[in-house]
Design brief:
The complex is a heterodimer of chains A (482) and B (279).
Chain A (H helix, E strand, L loop, with lengths): L23 H4 L12 H10 L7 H5 L6 H9 L3 H9 L5 H7 L6 H4 L3 H4 L4 H14 L16 E5 L3 H12 L3 E5 L8 H4 L8 H13 L3 E3 L10 H6 L2 E6 L5 E2 L12 E3 H10 L16 E5 L3 H12 L3 E6 L10 H9 L3 E4 L1 E8 L5 E14 L5 E5 L5 E4 L2 E4 L3 E2 L3 H5 L5 E2 L2 E2 L12 E3 L2 H4 L4 H20 L15
Parallel strand pairs in A: 1-2, 1-4, 2-3, 4-18, 6-14, 7-8, 7-14, 8-9
Antiparallel strand pairs in A: 5-15, 10-11, 11-12, 11-13, 16-17
Helix pairs in contact in A: 2-4, 4-5, 4-9, 5-9, 6-9, 10-19, 14-15
Chain B lengths: L1 E10 L2 E7 L1 H6 L5 E5 L7 E4 L2 E3 L4 E7 L3 H7 L6 E2 L1 E6 L10 E7 L2 H14 L3 E8 L8 H7 L2 E6 L6 E2 L2 H8 L7 E5 L2 H11 L5 E5 L15 E4 L2 E4 H4 L2 E3 L5 H8 L3 H18 L2
Parallel strand pairs in B: 9-10, 9-13, 10-11, 11-12, 13-14
Antiparallel strand pairs in B: 1-2, 1-7, 2-6, 3-4, 3-8, 5-6, 14-17, 15-16
The chains are: A alpha/beta (482), B alpha/beta (279).
Bound molecules: flavin-adenine dinucleotide (2 copies), iron/sulfur cluster (2 copies) and FE2/S2 (inorganic) cluster (FES).
The site of one iron/sulfur cluster has 15 residues of chain A, from helix 3 and helix 4.
Chain lengths: 482, 279
Amino acid sequence: MDAKALPYKPNPKLPRQVLPVLQPEVRAKSADEVALGFAEREVSVEAQRCLQCPKPACVNACPLHIDIKRFISRLAQGDPEGAVDVISEQSPFPGVCGRVCQHELFCEDACLIGKKFGPVAIGSLERFAADHARLAKKTLTPGAFPAPTGKKVALVGSGPASLIAAFDLVRKNYRVTVFEALHKLGGVLAYGIPNFRLPREILHEEIARLQNMGVEFVTSFIVGKTASLEELFEEGFEAVFIGTGAGLPFMLGIPGENLIGVYTANEFLTRINLMEAYKADAVTPVRVGKRTIVVGGGNSAMDAARWAKRMGSETIVLFRRGRAEMRARLEEIEHAEEEGIQFHFLAAPVALYGDESGTVREIECIEMRLGEVDSSGRPSPVPIPGSEFRLEVDTVVAAIGQAPNPTLQRVTPQLITKRGKIVVNEAGETSMALVYAGGDVVRGGSTVILAMRDGRAAAEAIDKALSGGPAAAAELPAEVQG
Amino acid sequence: MNKVLAKKQLGPEVFQLEIEAPRIQKRWKAGQFVIIRPNSNSERIPLTLVQSDADRESITIVIQAIGNTTKETVEKEPGDFLVDVVGPLGEAASMCEGQRVVCMAGGVGVAEVLPVASAFREAGNHVTALCGARSDGLRILDAELKTSVDDLRWATDDGSFGFHGNVLQLLQSFAQPGDFGVGHVIGPIPMMKAVANATRDWGMKMYASLNPVMIDGTGMCGGCRVTVGDKVKFACVDGPEFDAHLVDFDELARRNRAYREMEQRVLADHVCRIGLGGA
Ligand SMILES: Cc1cc2nc3c(=O)[nH]c(=O)nc-3n(C[C@H](O)[C@H](O)[C@H](O)COP(=O)(O)OP(=O)(O)OC[C@H]3O[C@@H](n4cnc5c(N)ncnc54)[C@H](O)[C@@H]3O)c2cc1C
Ligand SMILES: Cc1cc2nc3c(=O)[nH]c(=O)nc-3n(C[C@H](O)[C@H](O)[C@H](O)COP(=O)(O)OP(=O)(O)OC[C@H]3O[C@@H](n4cnc5c(N)ncnc54)[C@H](O)[C@@H]3O)c2cc1C
Ligand code: SF4
Ligand code: SF4
Ligand code: FES
């Protein structure tokens, strides 16, 4: 520990502080952020709960290995700016991760006081440090960095996987260019996750940190269309990282799914988040009727349902398994319940019916019961014959999952894929020399923090390959080799 | 940011814009399109690639100003910028060689069919182009078409130039089943539907280039989905061209009307703004 660190007396028996949130009645009518964040007094209590363990399991469990113990000790000493400096050694995105990282599965799950007293609220503390520094207008990077002068690396897609890779590579003096297909940066953070969970200023400011460090961002550029992978190499890029995500939506595959008013979660969320259809003066419209039915049980389903509710619709989530089997974060499910969103578990849609204008008016569903555990590790839903029922509806959102974005793979047959997912080894190497991949395009849909872990691993492998001798051919997992 | 290099008015509400876009110029093929946003608060709209110029590193698009965003686009002058231009998107038009090919287009579709017709001819086909306009004065790109196809025929609704009637009636006026091996049609949905129905038993391949509402253009939202045969396809990545004889045009027409009222409100606001700010 350095000189600034004063001793303080940890006390894990203090009550775990509860994250204050906007009143459900208020937030169900607004686009404002739901979680308000800790105030200083909550932080001082929560930070004191940290035992400052000699072997902090939390640090290892964080996929970015943020020095949690040290940043919490800074907070305990009333030095949030110092805390951000500690976090920034590993991650420039504390505002994003403090909000959307699934800390309950990582750092907080490992926290050594967790079993006995409930884990330290690490995610909320991370968020507090970020917000404090932001409001204090602390320059999160010391001015503009000198322009990097090293070898050129291209990162495809601007989601979390590429963003952390950009941070790691630019710090090692690589000249990094991020190519993004859409007109805004951030991947799912920009088009999928709603403002009320991740205010856009925070995303923009954390991306701007990378810009200050010399990362170049090119929007409206689709690798595989605007330029091929091969062309990037011809233009002097020496390695390419593919972080193109899993954006290809699954369709319901039932009659009536092309009726007006039937959306994929991607389209619904893109219209609202990316194109800002929730604003009164928006030019890109979205149809939110009197009653919206969202099909699915993951993060996208919760986000779509919570937007529909905010836009004035009675909203029902239809999920074919039970509450315990939902994939969405528990916090999001609870928030949705508080906001008055109804849940109809153990039911699935079988058909949609429209009026003469082709607009959806009715949904037919069937009740399910839980059967044997299936390949997803959850009990499989089994339809109950004769249990069909119908509901009136004017907006239907299908949030039943996504597959990897196929654009680049389609025109690059040399890239070995498995069910659309790009196949890589531990280091993120693909079947093409000096081409790396990570995040959802490899995992087929996971989480922000795992995408970041992949981006970091690939950045390390790229650095090794470009600073060492000639690259060896990648070794891929045996079953797909050759 | 892409600079507008030149602008030309082709008809009362049809404009041609030449835009700086070196990468798209280098890679595009007939049948592909771009998505643009004229201003930083604009909607994303798809527009077909019509021509390009390697020396000027430019592409050309032809826009019919029918709504808010197309109007914003044609208000741009040389030296102004479009905030975003992304592409080339979609698959190239299907080609063949050594065939008699008929390309049919109406309205602004005439501009969209020009590159496809030229490509058919370059690939070694005999190309007939049947182009429609409401009247003589509304015909566009006549000179360009003349030099790009073997046989150019016009149909006008009022008979003021060429054939009196629409392009399907024009086709039926001189052609028989078997005359053409391949066809390509682009234009208003009722016209494409009529052409598809009329040629279904002609023993020819007929492609239609579809124009559903799009957002991202990268296959991510599914908003552009169309039914072809018994399959759901995403027009922005699987198309925009499909087998005309298999397309569900009625569904496409319905889906394209989904936002009509909302768009009209936006357009009214736009006209208001222009009215208030104008001299
Ligand atoms: C609605 C929703 C809510 C979610 N909520 C959470 C949450 O609360 N917490 C959590 O941890 N996870 C959440 N997830 C999952 C998480 O967002 C993803 O796992 C994560 O964003 C994946 O990151 P990525 O970098 O791999 O790709 P993405 O974030 O998907 O970004 C990929 C980017 O690449 C671009 N792209 C694609 N193809 C090309 C190309 N050829 N050329 C150039 N650019 C291209 C895309 O436009 C996109 O911007 C959520 C997902 C969704 C859909
Ligand atoms: C692949 C593709 C290529 C296209 N190429 C061209 C082109 O080269 N030149 C050109 O002028 N237009 C082209 N279009 C159509 C163009 O994209 C639409 O005219 C434009 O999106 C309308 O936007 P707006 O905001 O001006 O009008 P809006 O206010 O959105 O719409 C005005 C009216 O047009 C209808 N409409 C909206 N979108 C479409 C559409 N895609 N097709 C038909 N009607 C629509 C609406 O229902 C409404 O009644 C193309 C469309 C696609 C999908
Ligand atoms: S990034 Fe995620 S896992 Fe790491 S400390 Fe922050 S909240 Fe915990
Ligand atoms: S494991 Fe928990 S108590 Fe121990 S250092 Fe980490 S956060 Fe603090
Ligand atoms: S426009 Fe979104 S998938 Fe085609």
